[in-house]
Design a protein that fits this description.
Layout lengths: L1 E2 L10 H7 L16 H21 L6 E4 L2 H15 L6 E5 L4 H11 L4 E5 L9 H7 L4 E5 L13 H10 L3 E5 L17 E7 L10 E5 L30 H16 L1 H23 L3 E3 L10 E6 L4 H8 L3 E2 L13 H5 L4 H4 L2 E5 L16
Parallel strand pairs: 1-11, 3-4, 3-5, 5-6, 6-7
Antiparallel strand pairs: 2-8, 7-8, 9-10, 10-12
Helix pairs in contact: 1-7, 2-7, 3-4
Catalytic activity: (sulfur carrier)-H + L-cysteine = (sulfur carrier)-SH + L-alanine
Organism: Cytobacillus firmus DS1
Family: Belongs to the class-V pyridoxal-phosphate-dependent aminotransferase family. NifS/IscS subfamily.
């Protein structure tokens, strides 16, 4: 079977697995303990992983804290900002095409008295920068905009968004789950980004581990938010709970590999995407419509309408030979809210599937489409 659902999750890199195994068996110390060797070894491993992810994203080591993944990071940041800064304002701005962990968190906050603006998007899922600027008020405390769309692959203009939030003294959070390791990223160049979320399993690391970037303030102290989890004070008090050292090591190794091979992997994904689109157009001609843009996008994500074909039946029939999806794995039981927000009809939404590629795929693997 050819696996083309890498936006849902990726296979773990063999080097990541090898790096993790010792911390499941021999190196079982708790990094919060002191003095004895197993604890110090675990502490050192966590520090190295934190540094590896910081290097990949272009931020300071102490601006990275570990979570269970992007869903937790999104919840922690949005709820944490809303609670801590409630006296300054109650207005949050996000978009109609966010991951459910952002949208449903914002909807929850609306039940608590917060005012949420959901920005419209264009046909590729990008916000209008002028619209964002217009919606910011004196009560706005947070803007949360997805960096790269998980269904269409479209990139928002994060440079412009960062500058607008900086100029208006408003916190900016971005769900960067799909872009970490797939675009060149240097957070030092985006001074308006205060918070960011990511997950290891999107770039060949283990499931159940991710991170939140929390930018230091002008005093080199972490920006304050209310913690989602209280308890032992781990992760500078932001996220209590014993650290999953083996998973953190896996995240660190995946970050190291991604950083080392970044340019090569980006070019490879672009080539694979071009080859796949060429095969689809040659095979299906006017029976298909590509939903994704061809510029300013995450390489390796292709959204395709198979006109008049039910996407659930298509994915089911393809399953023995090709793994694909109808959209986000976190909302696969219902029609895509992303595709509806960009203006597709319900019939067009229900005929769309997503192919997402990885560096483990070879060009010749995609020739299976010639046989369909």
């Amino acid at each position: 079977m050819l696996y083309l659902d890498n936006s849902a999750t990726t296979q773990i890199h063999p080097e990541v697995k090898d790096a993790m195994l010792p911390y499941l068996m021999e190196e079982y110390g708790n990094p919060s303990s002191k003095y004895y060797a197993p604890a110090e070894n675990a502490k050192r491993a966590v520090k190295e992983a934190r540094n590896a992810l910081a290097s990949l994203m272009g931020c300071k080591e102490n601006e990275v804290l570990f979570t269970s993944g992007s869903t937790e990071s999104n919840n922690m940041i949005i709820k944490g900002v809303a609670d801590h800064y409630s006296e300054k304002g109650n207005h949050i701005i996000t978009t109609k095409v966010e991951h459910p962990s952002v949208l449903e968190t914002c909807q929850y906050l609306e039940t608590k008295g917060y005012d949420v603006t959901y920005l419209d998007v264009d046909r590729f899922g990008r916000i209008d920068i002028l619209d964002l600027q217009k919606q910011i008020t004196e009560k706005t405390i947070l803007v949360s905009v997805i960096w790269g769309n998980n269904e269409l692959g479209s990139l928002n203009d994060m440079d412009a968004i960062s500058n607008i939030c900086l100029e208006n003294n408003v916190f900016l959070h971005t769900d960067a789950t799909q872009v970490v390791s797939k675009i060149e990223m240097d957070l030092f160049n985006y001074p308006g980004i205060t918070f960011l979320s990511c997950s290891a399993h999107k770039f060949h690391g283990p499931k159940g581990i991710g991170a939140a970037f929390i930018k230091n303030d002008e005093y080199e102290l972490p920006t304050k938010i209310t913690p989602l989890l209280h308890g032992g004070g781990q992760e500078n008090g932001f996220r209590s709970g014993t650290l999953a050292v083996h998973n953190i090591v896996g995240l660190g190794k995946a970050s190291e590999i991604a950083n080392k091979n970044l340019a090569e992997n980006i070019n490879n994904l672009k080539e694979l995407e071009g080859h796949l689109i060429g095969l689809l157009k040659e095979k299906f001609r006017d029976q298909i419509q590509i939903n994704s843009d061809n510029t300013e996008k995450i390489p390796g994500i292709v959204s395709v309408q198979f006109k008049g074909v039910n996407n659930e039946l298509l994915v089911k029939n393809l399953a023995p030979i090709i793994a694909a999806s109808t959209g986000s794995a976190c909302s696969s039981s219902k029609p895509s809210h992303v595709l509806a927000a960009v203006g597709l009809s319900i019939d067009e939404v229900r005929s769309t599937i997503r192919f997402s590629l990885s560096c483990f795929i070879k060009k010749e693997d995609l020739d299976i489409f010639k046989e369909l």
